């Protein structure tokens, strides 16, 4: 995004030309990726023209004229918000979600809606109104979910930024699988008004999928009033980082994961960070608390619709129905445990600015594996929804042509620090510079797009 913004502010490109380049990119490649569900070309054109007028007057911030896409769990005025579900077909939003409104207020250009998993739960599924988005690095692989279209669209070059939401890792896992940056902000930092809810008490969070850590920082500054963009260029020197290696030492992890993870941590150390291994909190307990909240609160939200004749996807229905065996007392016990678990993460961060671990334990799985139903995809993301800490996934390497993600966790409220570590890692490696093997990038790249 930095190169694109520089070309806009130096008047070497217009916002309308940038819009046309991205629309062209969508038209030439989305037939393969299937990430974009609905375009708002007229609205985008009007926003781009406004941006060009502001640029001509010498005004505007880092997002002025920058295109963005929106996960179909967030409202855009006049468009359907279906959450990928036939049960919500025809639900048209009267206004924009707060995050969309704030991005537009910063001069960003809204392109439209992108794919998600059914009701933001599990997937990919094949009994829904639309086919699942595909991974741009290998079209036979999943994108991860539920911010599936957001990650695929950013990786494919359809927009530098896409709005996502994260209840258990729904921003970070797709970012890892698709080779882009995904930030789950500190709980409550980004307004969730107008965004579909699944587990609102602790877990639901709104954040960006982005080409780079700087793009994610610009998003955060625009929607939460932070100063993250000023922080990301400070490098790793002087930062104390805890390495939660133990969370990647699991039987279900790919056999080479620790080699890639160790190399990534070594790169951070060489960039100037002081790295020491730490004993992380009990992952299984953290995940169990989060899963219990997802099942109980998701069922409470959808119980009446599930009793009706509305059509539901089989896998999302099964996921929500799991809450039937849980009681209100189970939920209360989980909520009571959460502060203790958050304190354990705080203790792991004592004397340190960040923790690092793997985002997922494998690269993206083959889509064919999901044809008969959901397949478990091992991640290391849900704990930080439970505890509320900011967590960002940044590309950490490739195995067999498929990307993997390094997860950076910081103290609550210190999202800028997490992004600083991510940006320092980007600068120390070339992973963020690689692009998926899709055709037709030349005209788009000539504009200096990220």
How would you characterize the overall build of this protein?
This protein has 450 residues and is α/β, with parallel strands linked by helices. The chain has a single domain, classed as Amidase signature (AS) enzymes. The chain is built from 15 helices and eleven strands. The chain has helices spanning 2-9, 15-33, 41-56, 98-105, 148-156, 172-178, 213-224, 228-231, 257-270, 283-307, 314-321, 328-348, 383-387, 415-428, 442-446; strands at 36-39, 67-71, 109-114, 161-166, 181-184, 205-210, 240-243, 274-277, 354-358, 391-399, 402-410. It has an eleven-stranded mixed β-sheet with strand order 1-3-2-4-6-5-10-11-9-7-8, sandwiched between helices. Strand 2 (67-71), helix 4 (98-105) and strand 3 form a beta-alpha-beta unit. Helix 7 packs antiparallel against helix 14 (415-428), helix 9 (257-270) packs across helix 14 and helix 10 (283-307) crosses helix 11 (314-321). The longest helix is centred in the middle third of the chain and has 25 residues, at 283-307. The chain is globular and about 55 Å long. The termini are close together.
Task: Summarize, please.
This protein has 450 residues and is an alpha/beta fold. Helix content is 39%, strand content 14%.
Reported for the largest beta sheet, the result is:
11 strands, mixed
The multimeric state of the shown protein is single chain
The total beta strand count reads 11
| CATH hierarchy, class | Alpha Beta
**Based on the structure given, which CATH architecture is correct?**
Alpha-Beta Complex
Uncertain runs with pLDDT below 50, 5 residues or more?
none
Please tell me the overall pLDDT: 94
CATH H level: which superfamily? Answer: Amidase signature (AS) domain
- Number of DSSP helical runs: 15
CATH topology name, in short, is Amidase signature (AS) enzymes
N- to C-terminal distance: 5 Å
Q: Which structural class do you get from the secondary structure elements? A: alpha/beta
Can you tell me the number of structural domains?
Answer: 1
Please indicate the percent range of residues in DSSP E strands (runs of 2 or more).
Answer: 5-15%
